[in-house]
Structures are given as structure tokens and as C-alpha cells.
């Protein structure tokens, strides 16, 4: 009999009783990767496994699903064989359709959706909810930003739609109206259901949902390889301007400092925001946050816009200080229009031919 018990970091410990060790020898080498198939689950803690052509009885406090093949790495062979679960390599995700995302940003597909949902023939309930979500995104950012705004933005944009739906189904707590509540606050969920209701195989809704698919795909590789997240930020201003900002987040990285012959490391965030304004024109803000210390650089294309922003910097600095931040430096610079307007998606591209993915 083989005893398998779960250990930290998904380790599986296999114990051979002394009398069985000589009868059922398994040649195991340290660091060897082996496969084990769960032939039959007997109880919640025991199962028959096929390892190296031998059927063995395994005892485990970790769940073993019948029919699955697990990959195991031999950690130690003496005095008792100890194995741990070895992740099976996943297929490499296909690259995101960058052209589709670029065109959606250039067109501002979120504005197009807002205009289309009020046209005759569009499902009234779904159209109302889509308008509400887009309005909430702008209101939450411009008038009453909250600490959880970023999480709410990701949810409402539809970039966690599959994860939320799966969590609801797995929780086995699907009650009347629970899926409806999930859909009505999620642009992707609303878009997908509207496609079904309109029986639309092609069209603006299909392109909208496909754009969200590709932004999810873009972020998956961005997170895995560069710790970066890209988010579109639809914004509807009171003067009627409906634009879409671009938010690029570089999750904590380590920076090194040498102080008095001592090397220290600090983790820092980097955030870049790109926005087209009706009066200021294009604006790009790069912010680095190390602990509570902020360094920021703002790029603009017009002198009068630069003067206006610099005039309002003291109030911004006071507000940040009231929230406990230390302002090391904030500066405004004039740059060429094409340099300022360059899409932040280009900074998500890892290498030629390989792009990036939030689909959970």
C-alpha cells in the first residue's frame, strides 16, 4: 500500500510499509518526473493509482479525481519516497489581436456601444444596463473615486466575467436572480447576452465582445511575463466629450539603491495614464510610487495646457499629502504630439510576434 498525504506546496508523501517495499519495488530517482493515473477512487482518502505500470493502493488526504493523470516529481527517495505535484505545462496562449484593440481604441468602441444601445430594436433591458455601467464608470472616476475603483473598473469592463461566472457556479449558491445581478453590472456579460437576444453573428456587439476577449488575452501574458496590466477607461465628461483613457499598471518591481556601501532594495509601482482632453489635448502622466513616495512626470503638447496643469499642481500635491503621500517630484514637460498620443498597448508588447493576457 502507498500512503499519500498532502504537504505544504502540494507535496505528496508516499510511504512504503516495510513488508511491501520488497514486494512492490518502484525504481524512483531523485528529481525524476513521473506520471500517475487515478484508476479508481475508493473513498475520499483512498484510491488505486497506476505508477510505472504497477497498480498501487494510495492513501491521501488530498482529493484524487478518478480518471485524471497527475504529474509528480520525486523530491526524495530515502528513507521514504516523497513526491510533489508537478505542474503540467500549459499550451501557450495565442497572441492577442493587436490590430483589433488598436482600432477599438481609435474608434472608441465604448462610445459607439453607448450610441447603438439606444437605437430601435436593441433589447431595452440590456441597453439600459449597458448605459448605466458606462455612466457609473465615468461618475466613479471623475466625481467620487473610491479605494476599490480599480477592482470595480476591471469588473465592470467585463475583464473578469468568466471568473465571476465560474465562481458563482462552483459555489453552488446559484439563487434566483443571482446570475441576472452578475450580468447587469458587467459589460461583457451584457454584450454576450445581447448577441444571443439579437441573434447577431456579426456586427458591433460581436466586435465589442471580441475586443474584450483580446484585452483579456493581452493582459494574461503581460501579467505572467512583465507584471503589467492594460485597462481602457471610458470617460464621459459633462461637456459632452466621450473619450477613452488608457491605464497601464506595472506591478511592484524591485529597485536597488547604494547608500553608504550598503545595497538596499525597494518595491515600486509604476502607473501610466493616457487621455485625450477637449481643452488640454493629449496628456500622458507617468507615476512611480515607492512606499509612500511619489515621483510623477506629465507630458503635454501645448504651452497653454502646460501652464494650466502647473497652476493646479499645488492643490493636487496638497490632496496627496493629506492622504499620507510624500511628493518627491512632479514635473510637466512639452513633447511632440505623436510621442504623447502613442498607445500604451505598445508598451505591453514583449517581443515581435509575441504579445500578451485577465481571462481567469
Task: Describe the fold and architecture.
The protein is of the alpha+beta class and 360 residues long. It has 2 domains: 2-85, no CATH class; 98-347, no CATH class. The protein has 11 helices and 13 strands. A hairpin with a 4-residue loop joins strand 3 and strand 4 (46-51). Helix 2 crosses helix 9 (204-226) and helix 8 packs antiparallel against helix 9 (204-226). The two termini are 38 Å apart. Mean pLDDT is 79; it is low at 5-11, 13-22 and 350-360.
Can I get a quick summary?
This protein has helices at about 20-25, 100-105, 110-115, 125-140, 150-155, 160-170, 180-185, 185-200, 205-225, 305-320, 335-340, and strands spanning about 1-5, 10-15, 35-40, 45-50, 55-60, 70-75, 80-85, 230-235, 240-260, 260-275, 280-290, 295-300, 325-335.
Which class of secondary structure composition applies to the elements? alpha+beta
- For the biggest β-sheet, the strand order reads 1-2-7-6-3-4-5
Biggest beta sheet summary: 7 strands, mixed, barrel
Low-confidence stretches: 5-11, 13-22, 350-360
Helical amount? 25-40%
Whole-number average pLDDT? 79
The fraction of residues assigned to DSSP E strands is 25-35%
Number of extended strands = 13
Q: Using the CA coordinates, give the radius of gyration.
A: 27 Å
CA(first)-CA(last) distance: 38 Å
Amino acid at each position: 500500500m502507498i500512503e499519500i498525504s498532502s504537504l505544504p506546496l502540494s507535496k505528496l508523501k508516499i510511504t512504503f510499509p516495510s513488508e511491501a517495499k520488497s514486494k512492490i519495488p518502484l525504481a524512483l530517482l531523485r528529481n525524476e518526473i513521473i506520471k500517475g493515473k487515478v484508476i479508481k477512487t475508493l473513498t475520499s482518502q483512498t484510491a488505486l493509482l497506476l505508477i510505472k505500470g504497477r497498480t498501487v493502493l494510495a492513501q491521501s488526504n488530498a482529493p484524487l479525481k478518478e480518471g485524471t493523470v497527475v504529474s509528480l516529481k520525486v523530491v526524495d527517495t530515502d528513507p521514504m519516497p516523497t513526491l510533489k505535484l508537478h505542474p503540467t505545462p500549459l499550451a501557450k496562449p495565442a497572441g492577442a489581436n493587436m490590430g483589433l484593440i488598436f482600432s477599438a481604441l481609435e474608434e472608441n468602441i465604448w462610445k459607439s456601444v453607448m450610441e447603438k444601445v439606444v437605437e430601435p430594436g436593441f433589447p431595452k433591458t440590456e441597453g439600459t444596463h449597458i448605459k448605466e455601467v458606462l455612466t457609473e464608470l465615468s461618475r466613479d472616476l471623475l466625481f467620487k473615486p473610491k479605494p476599490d475603483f480599480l477592482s470595480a473598473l476591471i469588473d465592470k469592463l467585463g475583464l473578469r466575467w468568466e471568473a465571476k461566472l465560474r465562481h458563482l457556479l462552483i459555489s453552488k449558491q446559484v439563487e434566483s436572480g443571482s446570475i441576472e445581478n452578475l450580468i447587469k453590472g458587467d459589460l461583457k456579460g451584457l454584450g454576450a447576452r445581447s448577441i444571443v437576444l439579437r441573434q447577431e453573428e456579426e456586427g458591433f456587439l460581436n466586435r465589442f465582445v471580441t475586443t474584450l476577449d483580446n484585452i483579456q488575452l493581452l493582459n494574461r501574458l503581460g501579467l505572467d511575463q512583465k507584471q503589467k496590466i492594460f485597462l481602457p477607461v471610458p470617460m464621459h465628461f459633462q461637456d459632452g466629450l466621450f473619450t477613452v483613457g488608457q491605464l497601464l499598471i506595472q506591478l511592484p518591481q524591485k529597485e536597488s539603491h547604494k547608500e553608504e556601501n550598503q545595497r538596499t532594495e525597494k518595491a515600486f509601482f509604476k502607473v501610466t495614464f493616457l487621455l485625450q482632453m477637449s481643452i488640454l489635448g493629449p496628456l500622458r502622466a507617468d507615476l512611480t510610487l515607492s512606499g509612500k513616495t511619489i515621483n510623477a512626470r506629465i507630458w503635454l503638447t501645448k504651452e497653454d495646457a502646460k501652464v494650466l496643469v502647473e497652476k493646479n499642481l499645488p492643490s493636487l500635491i496638497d490632496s496627496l499629502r493629506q492622504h499620507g503621500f510624500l511628493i518627491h517630484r512632479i514635473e510637466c514637460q512639452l513633447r511632440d504630439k505623436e510621442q504623447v498620443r502613442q498607445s500604451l498597448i505598445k508598451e505591453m508588447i514583449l517581443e515581435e510576434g509575441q504579445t500578451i493576457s485577465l481571462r481567469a
